[in-house]
Amino acid sequence: MTAFWVLAPVMVAAALGLLFVRKAVHAALLLATVMMSLAVLYLVLEAPFLFAVQIIVYTGAILMLFLFVLMLIGAESRLSLVETIKGQRVLAVLGGLVLGSLLVIAIGQVTLASPVGLEAANSGGNVEGLADVLFSTYVFAFEATAALLITAALGAMVLAHPERLTPKESQQEMAARRVREYAEHGRHLGPLPAPGVYARHNSVATPALAPDGSVIEASINRTLVPPRPADEPDLPELAADEDEEGPQ
Amino acid sequence: MTEYVILSAILFTIGAVGVLVRRNALVVFMCVELMLNACNLAFVAFARQHGNLDGQVAAFFVMVVAAAEVVVGLAIIMTIFRARRSASVDDASLLRY
Amino acid sequence: MTPLLAAAEIPVVAPVAADGVLAWAWLLVALPLAGSVILLVGGRFTDSFGHWLGTATAAASFVLGVTIFVALLGRPADDRSISQHLWTWFDVGDFQVSMELLVDPLSLLFVLLITGVGSLIHLYSVGYMAHDPRRRRFFGYLNLFVAAMLMLVLAGDYVGLFLGWEGVGLASYLLIGFWQHKPSAAAAAKKAFVMNRVGDMGLSLAIMTMFVAFGTTAYAGVSEAASGASEATLTAIGILLLVGACGKSAQVPLQGWLLDAMEGPTPVSALIHAATMVTAGVYLIVRSNFIYELAPTAQTVVVVVAVVTLLWGAIIGCAKDDIKKALAGSTMSQIGYMMLAAGLGVAGYAFAIFHLITHGFFKANMFLGAGSVMHAMDDDVDMRHYGGLRKLLPVTFLTFAFGYLAIIGFPGFSGFWSKDLIIEVAFGHSTLVGLAALLGAGITAFYMTRLMLMTFFTDRRWEPDVHPHESPKVMTIPLIVLAALSLLGGVLVIGGWIGDFLEPVVGHAPHPELPVPAIVLTLIITAVVAVGVALAWLLVGRQEVPRTAPQDVSFATRAARADLYGDAINDTLVVRPGAALTRGLVGFDSGVVDGAIEGGARGIGGLSGALRMLQTGYVRSYALSILVGVIVVVLALLVVNWA
Q1: Rounded CA separation C280/C641 (Å)
Q2: What digits encode the pLDDT tens for the residues A55-108?
Q3: Quick check: A88 and C624 CB within 8 A?
Q4: What residues of chain C lie within 8 A of the CB of A85, using their CB?
Q5: Could you tell me where the DSSP H helices lie in C74-218?
Q6: How many helices (DSSP H) and strands (DSSP E) are in chain B?
Q7: How far, in Å, are B31, C222, C234, C278 from residue C206 at the CA level?
């Protein structure tokens, strides 16, 4: 019980934090907190196998997937908390309160007998017990999950693969285009400048600086530039930092 | 055991409110995960209450489904982001009157 | 006359099967029909010989008609009703209509008139339409008309009669509007068609009533069942048949189309709108004698309509300057005589048919004569532009004079016999009707003399560039034949032959008792006719005829020039209320009906527009509604558990 009373407030606080943090990375970390705490509670509830799965699969794999995507689509950006749909926030909080109090009151009315406990079920070991149930009673559901996972993997591959709408530009065409662009617009013929090397943060995401100290935007990959939320300017402090430091 | 279930209900509700108030698709997704985990807690608690492993198996299946869902969902978010350069669920609102 | 007593006297149509030459009766209809089909389907390929083919089929029908007539005369008098069953037309439950031809004295007289006069008019048209580029089509229509008219009179069933009835209506429409490039002709055709539809409605209702009352529409079945039916039913059928007859025969109140129908080519006016089709109403009433004899009320209505039309047409004829319209008014009036005789029952049927035949001769003669005059005068129809033509058109003048003498009832000519008999029977019915018929005879003499004088006598009033000339032989030969028939038509009544011949069909009645001896009545009629002629001589022949119609004339003249305001009456009583009703219905439709429907649609559309706003496209809004749903479900569960 000690573990529960220690972890429960932590979990609730972390979950609540999920509603307020302005950075997605923080949200992921708060979620990790909740999940790790849950894993401990599973152990307390005599489910050692799920304890392992929760840590390895959930926290280790799924949450890392989250972080991975997060980095792809802009980890640096701050999330706006301004509500755009009229009345949505008020109604959501109101609805949440009603639902929560309803559930809590309803569950509070119930008096459960003292738990049976899993000593008997886990007598041959928790993993063996689960395997017994899984491969007998739930064997068809288990097979179905195999199909589900395969389908999901395929779907993810199809979705993540960008569709090519135009024929691929050959090297010859590209060379011709660049020379033409140079002739017409004076665009630089050579390769793009390399990212900055005097960076404090992350060399790939930090723009290079020209000899006069100005930032060369073209030196960083476009996908690494975080998207600008409507109410926040893009990279204000980053540019300022670079200005301050400059090439010594 | 009641306190576990109550905790599960509270986490579930917080997750639900999170889905409603957050605009970033990734955070919304995390809130959905939170709701799934809250359910899992109830399953595992009831398994112990009743003294058999069916609850744990259910939690196990929930995890499998959640994994599949996350894979596909994140791929969708990636695709939308590539097309619109935005991860806000409010921006994907073309399907309307 | 009580219906029960009358029932014994009314012949029942009980035909025997056709044999010998009579079995060829179907060819009577088939020949002109085939001619029409060839001419209308063959198109330009038949242009070169089409007119002769059309004439030949009509003439062939006439020859066949004469052969059948001779064959029929060779049979005993009570065995002259022959039917030829061709095929079963429709067969629905107990109701059966067979395509059946009925050859009896009545229909055969009509066949001879239609094919005989029709052939002459075909012949005449060969010359009259010689310069019309659509002559072949004209003959196709004429043949179609002859076929339909023969179908009408030969049918052994009211439904078959209706087929012919509609066929002649169609042919009439096509021929009145033959010169369709003239808006007046197109309008006249439409008017004739529409007014005939009113009459056809009456006829079709009569046929339906027969079907309901008797379960059959064959003459044989109806004539047999009629004696057992209630008088109210028979009166209703009789009046509905009269409505049909009024439409086809241009009787008041459906008379308006006939004057306008003169827009068609003159042979059409002669064949259809004088000699044959317009007499179909008379045929219908005489043919339905088994109904009218049992419905005295309907007979009275027929008499009233006939008398009104008789005078109406005669008065119009007095004021018209258009030669064809004057003759058309005269046609109305003469058909009024026939209807009068037909309405007088058994005593008059035979005389109605007799007058119909003589009228067919002399009116066709005069119309063709008028066509010859117009031909000479460059298609001018205004008699005020004629005058003194007797020297230039001697054949036309002489033949026209025969028709003239026949129609006014000059002693010895065919019209004398037939009209005299009708007036006699009218006096036998009631003095009032007799006096009306007598007055009509006087007016007839007046207007026909006026027409004669203005055309062939008095000063020459035509334009200097008009050079009247006699028509070619192909046109004058039919005139001569018809003139001879106008003179000799009276032979049919020698020894009461026509009455005896028709007796198996229409029955026989003793000669009516007259207020004065018959010979005195004949003298009186002749005297009245002489007065009419003299008046015309004084008012027209002795004075100079102005080239344009004087406008400072009496109200009576103005009214007669305006067809006695027949069109105005139709306009006020039917057209304008109908238009107002239509406007009202359109307003009701667009205001109330459409308003309700469109208003409902608009309301639902508005509601949908409002509900549409719920589809914001924001997935979070939808999620919120899901949350509300979850709350409702949880609440419901709690309520159910604790209730």
Answers
A1: 91
A2: 998 888 888 889 888 888 765 667 777 777 888 889 999 999 999 999 998 888
A3: yes
A4: 616, 618, 620-621
A5: 105-128, 135-154, 158-176, 183-214
A6: 3, 0
A7: 86, 12, 10, 19
Provide φ and ψ at C180, rounded to 5°.
-70, -15
Cβ C116 vs Cβ C246: under 8 Å: no
A1-76, CATH topology level: Four Helix Bundle (Hemerythrin (Met), subunit A) (1.20.120)
Whether C617 sits inside 8 A of B19 (CB atoms) is no
Structure token pair of residue C590: 């667009």
Residue pairs spanning A and C at CB distance below 8 A = 29
Among chain C residues, CA nearest to A94: C628
C76-98, pLDDT tens digit by residue? 888 888 888 888 988 888 888 88
C181-190: pLDDT as tens digits: 999 999 999 9
Q: Give the residues across from A208 on adjacent strands.
A: A216
Between chains, do A88 and C620 touch, taking CB under 8 Å as contact? yes
Q: Would the CB atoms of B97 and C615 count as touching at under 8 Å? A: yes
Partner A contacted by B45 (CB < 8 A): yes
Q: Are strands C82-92 and C95-103 parallel, antiparallel or unpaired?
A: antiparallel
Q: What is the pLDDT of residues C561-594, one digit of tens each?
A: 877 787 888 888 888 999 999 999 999 999 899 9
Domain residue limits, chain A = 1-76, 192-248
Task: Assign domain B2-84 to a CATH class.
Answer: mainly alpha
As a whole number of angstroms, the distance between CA C65 and CA C60 comes to 8
Q: Does any CB of chain A come closer than 8 Å to the CB of residue C634? A: yes
Specify the range with the lowest mean pLDDT, choosing from A22-26, A120-124, C125-129, C348-352.
A120-124
Give the type of residue at C478. P
